[in-house]
Amino acid sequence: GLRALAEVYRAPGRSLTLLPDPPAYAGPSLADRLRFALLLGGCTLAAAVVAYLLHGPRGYWLPMTVAFLYKPDLGPVFGRALNRCLGTVAGVGMVAVVAWLVTDAWALTLVAAAFGAVMAAGVRYHYALSTFGLTVIVFVFIDFLGDDRQLLPSRVLETVIAAA
Fold it and tell me: For 32-37, which contacts have Cβ atoms below 8 Å and span 24 or more sequence positions?
């Protein structure tokens, strides 16, 4: 932000610079990167152990969700975890409605396309919205594979555990 502001005052024809050059950011230190790698590995391992103990269907979702959530370079983990839970719960609810109303394969394809647009907008504007769209798309594709609906409650449970 300071660099952009400094560039405004360095417009052509101006000889007066009101702001000094901000210091260059070198990025995270080696110690920070090592700490992040160890924490991510430990959290993912703990999630894999919990998934194994739960014996739930598609147990890889829990450690995968932890890996998606734990990205300190993208801002606070707590807010992202909360948005992930909200988006997943809303997405699972929407999947239940879609499964009740839509049975035709072509109609499900249109649903997947529509929620692809929701996910694309969410990537740009809000993490919960992108998670909502992605959850619906994933379950529509799982429905094409003929999987049963036992995944709906386990997906919510695993997301809440991963967020915690």
Answer: 36/72
Using an 8 Å Cβ cutoff, are 84 and 65 in contact? Answer: yes
Question: From its phi and psi, is residue 75 left (phi > 0), alpha (psi between -120 and 50) or beta?
Answer: left
18 pLDDT tier (thresholds 50, 70, 90): low
Tens digit of each residue's pLDDT (9 = 90 or more) over 140-158: 888 777 766 677 777 888 8
Sign of CA dihedral 101, 105, 109, 110: negative
Q: Are 157 and 139 in contact (CB under 8 A)?
A: no
Give the number of C-alpha atoms closer than 13 A to the C-alpha of residue 158, restricted to the C-beta side: 30
Sketch the domain layout of the chain as residue ranges: 2-163
The CA distance from 129 to 99, in Å, is: 20
Question: Any idea what DSSP says for residue 75?
Answer: S
